[in-house]
């Protein structure tokens, strides 16, 4: 027996629900560590106007000064609070299936209003329809995650309506421009750390490791309970491993195995923090870069109920097709920049 339009919509809706309930990365084709971390630690905001704002402070006016006898006391009027301003965005993805495509797969759909009409669906139709929907919903879910992960890195210039990502505020040249409404040039505390073109002339000099050692002191200088994560491109990781091998890690690890020599070295870390390979940095021609991000201060924030919100709109009167979509409303914001940094090799 043929499916009616309501049954088809309900089946599609149930299938989409099933995929949305799965673990966030169960169907991922390549690792997306930044995306995973942002989603795992995201927060929410209620619906509101165009911008999200937060109070931040990087200067203090009051100070102690010496006096004796009847010296006049000096009074100041502190006014140092500034407010970040972060615009939220709406992004979407969607798929469609035409009735013609369903017919070619042996599935007949009847338009008989909103009621079920008492029709039943054969086992063959159910199997065929499930296969079609699985393929399309796999594409919807994977494509949505893939594009969001890419978006969460990019600076937003690729699309004025896309959510600007990490590269929009963790800058190679952090001393100029305005970020989230605050002038970096006039406020040195509102800048990320940046050390570029770290020498790779001699692995034995340990230039990269020594640079990170110095930088971590500064990254922790003003941080309050930092939750640092390190995301690196493949070339940066290659050179880091080269420095480690130059100091004997290969020998120590290789000969420590009983009965065999292991030519690998352990997964790399710094200050106990795993250096995670971020494939998207390679895709963005940033394979020589690494980003140390304080995820306590950098957040994905989404409107209440608007993260991967599903939509199954009714068939428009002028088309014989069914539709499914996902929408996200939100932004990536930062409350502090000087506890995060960008680093690159030559």
Please provide the ordered H/E string of secondary-structure elements: EHHEEEEHEHEEEHEHHEEHEEEEE
Number of helices: 8
* 3D shape: flat
For the biggest β-sheet, the strand order reads 9-17-13-10-12-11
Strand content: 25-35%
Distance between the termini: 67 Å
Instruction: Report the biggest beta sheet as strand number plus sense, adding barrel if it closes.
Output: 6 strands, mixed
Which residue ranges are poorly predicted, with pLDDT under 50 across at least 5 consecutive positions? 23-28, 114-121
Rg, please? Answer: 27 Å
Q: What class would the helix/strand composition place it in? A: alpha/beta
Care to count the β-strands? Answer: 17
Write a short abstract of this structure.
This protein has 346 residues and is of the alpha/beta class. The chain is built from 8 helices and 17 strands. A 6-stranded mixed sheet has the order 9-17-13-10-12-11.
Architecture overview:
This protein is an alpha/beta fold and 346 residues long. Helix content is 29%, strand content 25%. The chain has eight helices and 17 strands. Strands 9-17-13-10-12-11 form a six-stranded mixed beta sheet. Strands 2, 5, 14, 15 and 16 form a five-stranded mixed beta sheet that branches. The protein has a two-stranded parallel ribbon with strand order 1-6. A hairpin with a 2-residue loop joins β7 and β8. α1 packs across α4. The longest helix has 31 residues. The chain is flat, with a radius of gyration of 27 Å. The relative contact order is 0.21.
């Amino acid at each position: 027996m043929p499916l009616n339009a309501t049954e088809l919509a309900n089946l599609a809706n149930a299938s989409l629900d099933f995929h949305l309930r799965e673990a966030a990365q169960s169907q991922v084709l390549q690792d997306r560590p930044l995306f995973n971390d942002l989603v795992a630690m995201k927060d929410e905001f209620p619906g509101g106007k165009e911008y999200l704002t937060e109070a931040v402070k990087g200067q203090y006016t009051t100070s102690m000064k010496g006096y004796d006898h009847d010296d006049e006391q000096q009074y100041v009027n502190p006014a140092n609070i500034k407010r970040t301003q972060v615009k939220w965005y709406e992004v979407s993805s969607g798929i469609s299936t035409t009735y013609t495509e369903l017919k070619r797969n042996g599935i007949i759909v009847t338009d008989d209003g909103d009621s079920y009409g008492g029709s039943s669906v054969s086992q063959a139709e159910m199997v065929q329809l499930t296969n079609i929907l699985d393929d399309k919903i796999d594409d919807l879910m994977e494509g949505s995650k893939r594009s969001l992960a890419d978006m969460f890195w990019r600076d937003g210039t690729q699309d004025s309506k896309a959510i600007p990502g990490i590269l929009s505020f963790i800058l190679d040249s952090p001393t100029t421009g305005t970020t989230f409404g605050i002038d970096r040039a006039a406020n040195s505390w509102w800048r990320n750390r940046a050390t570029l073109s770290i020498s790779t002339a001699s692995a034995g000099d340990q230039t990269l490791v020594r640079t990170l050692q110095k930088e971590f002191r500064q990254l922790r200088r003003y941080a309050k309970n930092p939750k640092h994560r390190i995301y690196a491109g493949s070339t940066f990781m290659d050179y880091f491993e080269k420095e480690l091998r130059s100091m004997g890690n290969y020998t120590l690890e290789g000969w420590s195995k009983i009965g065999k020599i292991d030519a690998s070295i352990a997964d790399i870390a710094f200050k106990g923090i795993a250096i995670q390979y971020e494939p998207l940095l390679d895709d963005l021609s940033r394979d020589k870069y690494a980003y140390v991000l304080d995820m306590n201060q950098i957040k994905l924030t989404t409107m209440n109920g608007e993260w991967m919100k599903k939509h199954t709109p009714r068939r428009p009167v002028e088309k014989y097709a069914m539709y499914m979509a996902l929408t996200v409303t939100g932004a990536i914001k930062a409350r502090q920049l000087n506890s995060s940094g960008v680093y690159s090799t030559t």
